[in-house]
Amino acid sequence: MERELLSPEDLDAPQPNSGSTRLRDEHSDPFRVMDLLRDALRFFKLSGNVVGRVQTRIVMKGSGYPLTYASSCLEIATVLRDCISMHKKMYLNGVLHRDVSLGNILIMNNGSGRLIDLDRAKYVSSKKQALRPVTAVTESEMKALRKDLKHLGLNLSEDIRRLSLQYFQEGAPISAYYLNGLIRSFFNDKSISLELNDLGWPNEKQREEYMLLPDFTKYRARDAFYQTGTIPFMSHQALSGNAERRNEPFMHDAYHDMESFFWVLVYVCITTQGPLGGRRPEMDGNNELADQVADMFHQEMQYLGKTRREYIHLEEPFKSLLSCLHPSFHDLQPLIERWREILSFTSSNKGLDHDIIHHHMLRILEERISELKSKSPVETDEIAKEKRAAREKHWAKRRRIPCLPSSGGSIEQQQSPDHSPSVPPMSRRARRRSSTTSTSTSPKVKRRRTRRNI
Predict the structure, then answer these.
(1) What is the model's pTM?
(2) Would you list the DSSP string of 289-355?
(3) pLDDT beyond 70 at 14
(4) HSE (CB half, 13 Å, CA atoms) of 14?
(5) By its UniProt entry, which Pfam families does this protein fall under (predicted)?
(6) Alpha-carbon distance 39 to 23, whole Å?
(7) How big is the CA angle at 213 (ends 211 and 215), to the nearest 5 degrees?
(8) Per residue in 390-404, is it b (16+ CB within 10 Å) or e — as a string?
(9) Cβ 151 vs Cβ 172: under 8 Å
(10) How many CB atoms lie within 10 A of CB 58?
(11) Three-state SS for 114?
(12) Is the torsion defined by CA of 155, 160, 162, 164 positive or negative?
């Protein structure tokens, strides 16, 4: 006779030999979990409908290499540009990554970059108008802004004034205040005449994709999931929960991912001894470099957020950061300095530059890539092939599972001589179990020792 399955109502009904009569609804009751477990066990015991589970593992061929295996400074800049370009494309379509880290940036076989792992990404379908149409800016607003800028001693082109009014719909006073802070942050002489390109702002064609931006302010994260990411690479605001803006709840946006890209770049330039050089030996000792790396990447969240805020906003801590860079990455130091300048301004000023931060990052990366290409000789196909072969050989030594041959050759040639080609290497538990059971042939001793090992 088949046993009947218990319904949820039966679980709440009194059971024989049971100390409780109903599931408690109070979440604060410490015995509620025990009641749930006891009733669940009773349900499976009486129903006889326990489903067997099978652990399954899928082994796939790896794709790409970590950023620490870059063959040159040019390749690092190229990979970061490609990943930020992918991030921008996802962002404009309503997807925010929220977990940019060293493990989520890959170098593909052709030298391009790829951003992976969308486990913590969030998606919104709603949009907000970031820029008004050009026709919406009136002549009276332009005259008022020109008057305010003249009073502040700023000489800005008409394109700059019009674009600022497209963004700041509040009018001329807010636009003038923002532009004054922007010029003071990036230019020593604020009386010079500036054009649109001097500020790095997009032209009329480029700004079309920024007219409508995803509205992540309507996103409601679950409790304890507002601050997400990999701690060593999270932005200072994400780590501290936006402590400097106490009246505003923390909301993850594109800026925080751009700062995560920055810390990935800094980590690679500090902890590795040049392209394909591996980990710096100084990192494994008790010295000033190891202590500063621990200070920059391996603290508790609240302390790490405060420390990173100092690196972003203060000159002296940032100079100490630059002194830790490996000499092989000297060509990337100007990129790090410009990246930090943009982060320092956009983290404190929620304005146009904060919303078009992808444009700024791609701009400085493209400029640095062009400079590195002009310095380095033209790389032939043969040199590129040699670099890829060296990287593949270096990466194969670090893999836990031997790689299958890509073309020709046999598996025996790629496996370690310590293991037989036909027998896969044993796990640690299997080796311990075999060594324990081989010492005695008695069944009792074998069972007892196996139980002890488990």
Answers:
(1) 0.76
(2) HHHHHHHHHSS-HHHHHHHHHHHHH-HHHHHHHHHTS-GGGGGGHHHHHHHHHHHHHHHH--SHHHH
(3) no
(4) 4
(5) Pkinase_fungal
(6) 9
(7) 145
(8) ebeeebeeeeeeeee
(9) no
(10) 4
(11) strand
(12) negative
Residues 6 or more apart whose Cβ sits within 8 Å of residue 407 = none
| pLDDT of 366 over the 50 cut | yes
Q: What is the C-alpha to C-alpha distance for residues 442 and 261, in angstroms, rounded to an integer?
A: 60
C-alpha R_g of the chain: 30
Judge whether residue 404 has pLDDT over 80: no
The full DSSP string for 363-427 is: HHHHHHHHHHHHHSPPPPHHHHHHHHHHHHHHHHHH-SSPPPPSSSS-HHHHS-TTS-SSSPPPP
For 52-102, the pLDDT digits (tens) are 678 888 887 778 899 998 988 999 999 999 999 999 999 999 999 999 999
d(CA 138, CA 433): 82
Listed in sequence order, the residues at least 6 apart from 196 whose beta carbon sits closer than 8 Å to its beta carbon are 157, 159, 160, 163, 203
Q: Single out the residue of 107, 86, 161 nearest to residue 358, CA to CA.
A: 86
- The residues, any chain, with a CB within 8 Å of residue 311's CB and separated by 6 or more, are 236, 296, 317, 318, 321, 340
Q: Which residues lie below 8 Å from residue 209, measured CB to CB, with a gap of 6+?
A: 92
* Superfamily of domain 64-129+229-375, CATH level 4: Transferase(Phosphotransferase) domain 1 (1.10.510.10)
Identify the residue whose tokens are 């920024």.
Answer: 210
Task: Tell me what the mean pLDDT of segment 211-221 comes to.
Answer: 81
Pairing relation of β-strands 155-156 and 113-115? unpaired
User: In this structure, how many other beta carbons lie within 10 angstroms of the beta carbon of residue 408?
Assistant: 6
Collapsing DSSP to helix, strand or coil, 448 comes out as helix
Measured distance CA(299)–CA(287) in Å, rounded: 17
Q: In what order do the strands lie in the sheet with 113-115?
A: 65-66, 105-107, 113-115
Per the CB < 8 A criterion, the answer to whether 140 and 148 are in contact is no
CA distance readout (Å), 313 to 234, 263, 318, 341, 383: 16, 14, 8, 9, 41
Q: What is the pLDDT of residue 52?
A: 66
Secondary element (H or E) of residue 447: helix 443-453
Location of structure tokens 């890829």: 388
Tokens of 245: 């803006």
d(CA 263, CA 233): 6
* Average pLDDT of the chain, as a whole number: 80
